[in-house]
Each structure stands twice: as structure tokens, then as C-alpha cells.
Specification:
The protein is an all-alpha fold. It contains one helix and no strands. The protein has one domain. The chain is rod-shaped and about 75 Å long.
């Protein structure tokens, strides 16, 4: 006998996975931005 689908649970799981993926992308983007800021700061101090 097939199981009864639990649409609400499945939807919440999809949304949770999507939110985690989005947060991970945002963290990576922030880290990359921080690295660029550090590189610019070291270049500026070298040129002074």
C-alpha cells in the first residue's frame, strides 16, 4: 500500500535546503569580498 504524501513536510524540507544553500552562497560572497578588501589594504600600504 502506497504511503500518503506529506506535502507540507516535503515543502518545508525543500525550503530549508534552499535557505541553507542561499546562506552558504552569501557566506562565500562575503569571504571573497573580505579578501579583496584585505588585498586593497595591503596594496595601499605598500604604495604609501
Amino acid at each position: 500500500m502506497p504511503r500518503k504524501p506529506n506535502y507540507d513536510f516535503e515543502r518545508r524540507e525543500r525550503e530549508k535546503a534552499k535557505a541553507e544553500k542561499k546562506a552558504e552562497r552569501q557566506r562565500a560572497k562575503q569571504e571573497k569580498s573580505d579578501e579583496r578588501k584585505e588585498e586593497r589594504a595591503t596594496e595601499d600600504s605598500d604604495n604609501s
